[in-house]
Amino acid sequence: MDVIKNTREKCPLVHCITNYVTVNDVANIILACGASPIMADDVNEVSDMQAICNALVINIGTLNARTVDSMILAGKMANKLNHPVILDPVGCGATPYRTEVTKKLLDEVHFDVIKGNISEIKAIIFNSNKTQGVDASALDLVTMDNLDETIEFTKKLSKITNSIIAITGPIDVICDENNAYYCLNGTKAMGKITGTGCMSAGVLASYLVANPENKLEAVAKSIAAIGLSGEISEMNAQGTGSLHIGLIDAMSNLDDEKLEKGLKLYER
Amino acid sequence: MDVIKNTREKCPLVHCITNYVTVNDVANIILACGASPIMADDVNEVSDMQAICNALVINIGTLNARTVDSMILAGKMANKLNHPVILDPVGCGATPYRTEVTKKLLDEVHFDVIKGNISEIKAIIFNSNKTQGVDASALDLVTMDNLDETIEFTKKLSKITNSIIAITGPIDVICDENNAYYCLNGTKAMGKITGTGCMSAGVLASYLVANPENKLEAVAKSIAAIGLSGEISEMNAQGTGSLHIGLIDAMSNLDDEKLEKGLKLYER
Amino acid sequence: MDVIKNTREKCPLVHCITNYVTVNDVANIILACGASPIMADDVNEVSDMQAICNALVINIGTLNARTVDSMILAGKMANKLNHPVILDPVGCGATPYRTEVTKKLLDEVHFDVIKGNISEIKAIIFNSNKTQGVDASALDLVTMDNLDETIEFTKKLSKITNSIIAITGPIDVICDENNAYYCLNGTKAMGKITGTGCMSAGVLASYLVANPENKLEAVAKSIAAIGLSGEISEMNAQGTGSLHIGLIDAMSNLDDEKLEKGLKLYER
What we know:
Shape of chain A: globular
Order of helices and strands of chain A: HEHEHEHEHEHHEEEHHHHE
Structural class of chain A: alpha/beta
Helix content of chain A: 40-55%
Strand order of the largest sheet of chain A: 2-1-3-4-5-6-7-8-9
Distance between the termini of chain A: 19 Å
Number of helices of chain A: 11
Oligomer: homotrimer
Largest sheet of chain A: 9 strands, mixed
């Protein structure tokens, strides 16, 4: 499946309600991967805006009362129109408010994909109405040793939530109810720039909406594409500032051939 | 007219009420072109802030109820003090809310310059109280074939609104009531970075306030300067990330001599 | 004291309530200097967020009613937990609202460090309840000629406010009640990029919390480190865009040895 070619040809419109820390990077990476971003968060227009877009990314990084209402409204409209909706529950679990807002979002909006790190995903499980009875206490940083258990767990979570689940970290795990990928792309230095997670949600939405025939593969490749772009950037980076800019350069130069060559993405 | 020299010498203070997606780039490009930016959007201080500044840029890219009131207050103060006011109606026409807010802004504030792409300008015409009876249905992407018609139309619009009108696109058209420029600077790749339009409004305000003796030329040269900076940047860019940063580099290195050499700006 | 080594080893969590213009740079420079940033400004979570962090930076650059309440709540929690709190009173004195908010912040929160340029510090003095009777009228741009007077004045201000005071400019002055540093690091070109001041507050908080045994030295070295990073960046910068990115690169590569070599920081 030529995920990148499809994305560049269809150039989907991705509506983002996202944090103000990394919003510029999210817009630029969406453009770099072949789609078009629209950032709009006012309650008076988010439904209308979503109606002219093709997908929705909700990122709670700098959530506040005003934008939470907008997230729910836009999410409901996207659900109604069968537009894919992606949740990036940044910092879920860090404060009760973040956890509560995430719970509310999960109650009121269906998410096609939930993407988070291990602690965000754990916080979702411990606090969601839908995941009562799921034991996440064993869930820990993904290693090759606990990979199979993590995958089994993530598949179960995917079944309960009816969402593709992407758990990011040194080893990324991407599962739907029946299938799983793990991904080894990315480098440690990427943890020293802000926004790689937020950017990956933007690329994820772009690939997903342009490749509806195989959603899990599209999601998995978006996670790999960010990691690979970081690897490529790091080869010439002079520090974290140029690593950041080079990551966007690399994404803008990526095609399916380069992606296939650089992929460290495995079915399991 | 040495627009850049004048800007660097006078270093005007440009107050921006702008979107949070590209605000950092707008601030940096205003500095790069020789002026100073101030971003302030709270209703408790926008009038006072405008009073110590020299110009106002209103950009509705991420408008919300809180900042719309601030835009109107700041705009009224700028009008009272005869400070130039620039409207960048980002996404006007995309949602009813954006169109309605733009209409309200045009009703309550006089704009010295309205700068937008063809669909934003069309949305303004179709919805403004002031432009009733103007037929914009024929207005389309500007080409060398429809250039003269577009210019005639834009001059009429300038007369009705009493604003300089800048329509941006592959061919930019900049008109007041009597005179017109078109501009061929800029490259296709610039469409793959966010914020070039927002940045051009910042440069426009800076050049305009520093060159009051020929406003139309100042506006036209600001549009050309952004395009030329993109062209210069593209020569060494490794992708869209470095194109973005290089554009700011190029603007910071621009002087009137380089601008004159690189200009593709024509009176018509 | 190995301020940078300590910062990289302890990797403190720095909670920032800061402006949306330079927030991405602040997050990236905090990562570059070895700490971790968390940006959160909603009144529903700032106390909880501060409780899991190690320091707080309050920057009023784009203050508004919503975030001012959050600043006070987070500040009170930080005070309660003995976390260092840094005030960056951006634009204090520019509008009555900014001055009034700064006054309110100083009344309700104790700041371990107040960092501002000369006009911001003057505005604080003229308007604070605590500094009545202090004559700031003589305070002017710091030069080698008025350095000793400025230092005497700043020590007095430090005593009254019980805060370390950092006055930034071509010559930076950093004082507590009894001791003083001045710093000559930095370059003129840094004034042509936005956010160097905001970034320095992020580094300041990071160094300060990781080096509690000598707070004044930690603060002074953070100011020097930003200046030195700018100097290093300028050697290869192609303009203000790459100066900006290179500054973050340089900070990410800085260690105590390089800092000691490049320091232009003097006790007085």
